[in-house]
Specification:
The protein is of the alpha/beta class. It has six helices and 14 strands. The chain has one domain: Rossmann fold. A seven-stranded mixed beta sheet has the order 1-11-9-7-4-5-6, sandwiched between helices. Helix 1 packs antiparallel against helix 2 and helix 2 crosses helix 3. Bound molecules: uracil.
Length: about 210
């Protein structure tokens, strides 16, 4: 595989990799898939938030006063790229329950593979928030890039992208369009097939998490 952009970070934690393998298996049920996605998204969220800015706050323990570390700045903005993004969103929100949440609705035209917008609702003050866009599959990158275009147009300046699986094509496309956006993923797969699915992948993430076909 040719060199990947420096914006890509693969989370190689054994728990992430084990859970991902279970999710890839075609006979994994919807309920188990959903549960695994919830668990894995918390582990990925832990990684993508590892360098959040900190400050201190004066508190009183039962023993004495101390300057204790707390998160600095405005609450995070989590942006789910519908519909599959909601699966990742749930887990991340469990870890960062005070985050503000937005939704970008894009569907992929099956013929052209181009994104088509149908919904956009995001928290105010994006310019002052770390903004994490979530979508399980970074495939062609078309919809993810379009979503981040929209977030930047709405004022976001500090954007990260969280996914479960990435294809080299999507990672490159994202790095070209948004070189300032780090991409955090559990795995970088081989390629896209002619239908735009990630290979070996896990199939259609939305169908697998919602039990649709
Ligand atoms: N979206 C999916 O759900 N799966 C893929 O493999 C590619 C895009």
């Amino acid at each position: 595989m040719t060199e990947m952009p420096a914006t890509l970070r693969i989370v190689e934690h054994p728990l992430v990799q084990h859970k991902l393998t279970l999710m890839r298996e075609k006979d994994t049920s919807t309920a188990v898939f959903r549960q695994l996605l919830r668990e894995i998204s918390q582990l990925l969220a832990y990684e993508i938030t590892a360098d959040l800015p900190m400050t201190t706050k004066r508190i009183e323990t039962p023993i004495q006063q101390m300057d204790a570390p707390v998160l600095a700045g405005k609450k995070l903005a989590l942006i789910s790229i519908l519909r599959a993004g909601n699966g990742l969103l749930d887990g991340v929100l469990e870890l960062v329950p005070s985050a503000r949440v937005g939704f970008v609705g894009l569907y992929r035209d099956e013929e052209t593979l181009e994104p088509v917008e149908y919904y956009f609702k995001v928290p105010e003050g994006l310019a002052d928030r770390m903004t994490i866009a979530v979508d399980p599959m970074l495939a062609t990158g078309n919809s993810s890039v379009a979503a981040i275009d929209m977030l930047k147009k709405a004022g976001a300046t500090n954007v990260r992208f969280l996914c479960l699986l990435a294809a080299p094509e999507g990672v490159r496309r994202m790095a070209e369009a948004h070189p300032d956006v780090p991409v955090v993923t559990a795995a970088l797969d081989e390629r896209l097939n002619e239908k735009g699915y990630i290979v070996p992948g896990l199939g259609d993430a939305g169908d697998r998490m919602f039990g649709t076909k």
